[in-house]
Amino acid sequence: MHVEQLTSLLKAWGVDYKRYQHPPLDTCDEADALQLQRSGTRLKNLFLKDNYGRRHFLLLTTPEKRVDLKLLSKQMSIARLGFASERRLLKYLKVKPGCVSLLALINDEQQQVELLLDNDIVDSEYFQCHPLINTETYVLSHHNIDKFLANTGHTVKSVLVPEINESKG
């Protein structure tokens, strides 16, 4: 799916958003370097898989959080969470690295990717999301994200995302 198709579906579903255009942003650090001013909560989007590659997850958290995947795996009773490959990213969400956001769930028609939302941002009113490309950011309200997810068939699970403890060691 292309960004034009996504925006058409968002319109058809009554999902409103604010649109920002910018240079390509592959990482949160690149956005920081440009000092972009955009409304909404900034997100780090991590595409993960279990040890067996049977379950896939899109974890939304804060950009500065260094996620302890070992502890998160234990907490969720999942066999060793790790980063999924670019090949898996293309297979399940059909986007390139740097373009991942919850809007990519539009491409997960079989609902094979589980959406995890960090408790630290669960109460945010607005979220920043790339619309399948990393040269634009859409800001959607929580209400509009709920409408989007209802139309894609995805549900969101809130999780307490543990951070790497730097003092271990």
Write the topology of this structure.
Blueprint: H1 3-12, E1 18-21, H2 28-34, E2 44-49, E3 56-61, H3 69-76, E4 82-83, H4 86-92, E5 113-118, E6 126-129, E7 136-141, H5 142-152, E8 156-159
Parallel strand pairs: 3-5, 5-8
Antiparallel strand pairs: 1-7, 2-3, 2-4, 6-7
Structural class: alpha/beta
* Multimerization state: single chain
How are the strands of the largest sheet arranged?
4-2-3-5-8
Q: What is the CATH architecture descriptor?
A: Alpha-Beta Complex
Number of domains: 1
Parts with pLDDT < 50 across at least 5 consecutive residues:
none
Terminal CA distance: 46 Å
Top CATH class: Alpha Beta
Helix content: 25-40%
| Radius of gyration from CA coordinates | 15 Å
Counted beta strands: 8
**Percentage of residues in strands:** 15-25%
Mean residue pLDDT? 90
How does this model look, in words?
This protein is 25% helix and 22% strand. It has helices at residues 3-12, 28-34, 69-76, 86-92, 142-152, and strands spanning 18-21, 44-49, 56-61, 82-83, 113-118, 126-129, 136-141, 156-159. A hairpin with a 6-residue loop joins β2 and β3 (56-61). It has 169 residues and is α/β, with parallel strands linked by helices. The chain has a single domain, classed as Alpha-Beta Complex (YbaK protein), CATH 3.90.960.10.
